[in-house]
Amino acid sequence: MVETDKKRELIIEGAIKRFIHYGINKTTMNEIADDLSVSKPSLYYYFPDKSSLILGVIEKIFSDYFELMEKDQASKNTLEECLAAFIEIRHKFFQKYYMLHLSGGSPDASLNSDALRAAFLAMKAKNEDFHAKVLQRAVDQGEIAAIDTPKIAELYLESQAGITSLCILHGNKELFPSKKEMKTILEKQHSLSKIFIKGLK
Amino acid sequence: MVETDKKRELIIEGAIKRFIHYGINKTTMNEIADDLSVSKPSLYYYFPDKSSLILGVIEKIFSDYFELMEKDQASKNTLEECLAAFIEIRHKFFQKYYMLHLSGGSPDASLNSDALRAAFLAMKAKNEDFHAKVLQRAVDQGEIAAIDTPKIAELYLESQAGITSLCILHGNKELFPSKKEMKTILEKQHSLSKIFIKGLK
DNA sequence: TTTTTGACTGTAGAAATAAAAAAGTCAGAA
DNA sequence: TTCTGACTTTTTTATTTCTACAGTCAAAAA
Fold first, then answer.
1. Fewer CB within 10 Å, N or C, chain A?
2. Is the CB of A8 under 7 A from strand C?
3. Are B158 and A162 in contact (CB < 8 Å)?
4. Per-residue CA distances from B120 to A120, B47, B102, B116, B123 (Å)
5. Which phi and psi (to 5°) does residue A58 adopt?
């Protein structure tokens, strides 16, 4: 059974490689299988369908994301430092996994099954919880005023995601945002974050 | 010539009525003509093409918008009051002209000509200038700290538009957002605006 | 028994084509 | 100068065809 998990991990990693370059919908199960030098039915032995594989991919990516967030959080003292670091992490993941359209705050069309949408929303909720906890700590330490942390965390993340969403919508209709646009998004997110935090004091 | 302008106004108003209900692309020049009990070539006598008519519509709507903004601004004392009033005005226009997809911060696909996109961007710039002036006044009166007002105005408006953008993207895929979604957007925009202003002090 | 495969099927989406509708024009009337 | 019926051209939409992909299965390999 531990061998099975290993194989599953290998398949997920192979899938991610394809997904990153060509997106979920433009990647076929055959291509993933060929990359790993196995047959398609082998894939279906480990994952009942493509959605399950995508689910595995999403879980892996967000698991990495939250791991990094937890780690980074420990090394930061002020709320501002902490949230600035988080912006950088999100930016890194946004760039790396852009083709999967996991950002944007809402489930993408490429996540076509209910299970996938549910998983995505669960990750979003977990992210909000995480940020709420960070905010709560800042409240407890008297860094910011007492607030409804879950609500403010949601608002904060939405304001951040909104910046991204608008820049992508607005920008060139290429399938990938330009380096300059990416930089602009990052700068705006940092600016907005600073003002936001100051507004909580 | 003043008669001509009168006719143009009438046509624009007729077009707006259709656009509000069915959107720009689902409204034909024939329908607009029939509503006004004139022939299609009459329309083309006053507007060389559909884009010109749409341009007239956009100019009319934004002219109304800025007029209302100017008027409301005069009656408000604090920056917070002022921006709160602006949110209400934008919300009103957003609801009324939702089918035209004029919000969202970036030119919609229904604005298909370069001239239209340019006009839209000009209106966006004017809106930013307007907000920058309001911010500058608050700076001059010592209400908020000294800032790069054009830049902060852009960031402020983008944070506000981002909320809308995300809610629409996220929400039910109906062609019109629900009453509840509209309310949520409004509340979030007010919350974010308050925090934002406080962060500028 | 667990894992893997070649060869297969039904379906969903792309590409091509046909049909409909709408934008835009023009000669001429009011 | 303003307006119109009748027309042409372009764009959009609906329909069909075709292809490529997701998913299956009986059987072989480990």
1. N
2. no
3. yes
4. 34, 19, 8, 6, 5
5. -60, -45
Q: Could you read off the pLDDT tens digit of each residue along chain A, which spans 201 residues?
A: 567 899 999 999 999 999 999 999 999 999 999 999 999 999 999 999 999 999 999 999 999 999 999 999 999 999 999 999 999 999 999 999 999 988 877 777 778 888 999 999 999 999 999 999 999 999 999 999 999 999 999 999 999 999 999 988 887 777 889 999 999 999 999 999 999 999 999
**Which of A105, A161, A166 is opposite residue B161, by nearest beta carbon?**
A166
The single residue listed with the structure tokens 């008669």 is B3
CB B186 within 8 A of CB B84: no
Nearest CB among B162, B188, B196 relative to A166 is that of B162
Which nucleotide shows the minimum CA-to-C1' distance to residue A7?
C3
The amino acid sitting at A28 is T
CA distance A122 to A133: 16
The first and second tokens of residue B38, run together, are 């004139």
**Who among residues 104-123 of B has its Cβ near strand D, under 7 Å?**
112
Contact B106 A170 (CB under 8 A): yes
Mapping DSSP onto H, E and C, the string for chain B reads CHHHHHHHHHHHHHHHHHHHHHCCCCCCHHHHHHHCCCCHHHHHHHCCCHHHHHHHHHHHHHHHHHHHHHHHHHCCCCHHHHHHHHHHHHHHHHHHCHHHCCCCCCCCCCCCCHHHHHHHHHHHHHHHHHHHHHHHHHHHCCCCCCCCHHHHHHHHHHHHHHHHHHHHHHCCCCCCCCHHHHHHHHHHHHHHHHHHHHHCC
> Which two three-digit tokens encode residue B163?
């909320």
Identify which of A120, A25, A38 has the alpha carbon closest to the alpha carbon of residue A11.
A38
Residue with tokens 């790396």: A96
Query: Per the structure block, which two tokens stand in for A132?
Result: 């709420």
Amino acid (1-letter code) at residue B143: E
- Whether A147 contacts chain B with CB within 8 A: no
Q: Packing angle between helix A114-140 and helix A50-74, nearest 10 degrees?
A: 10
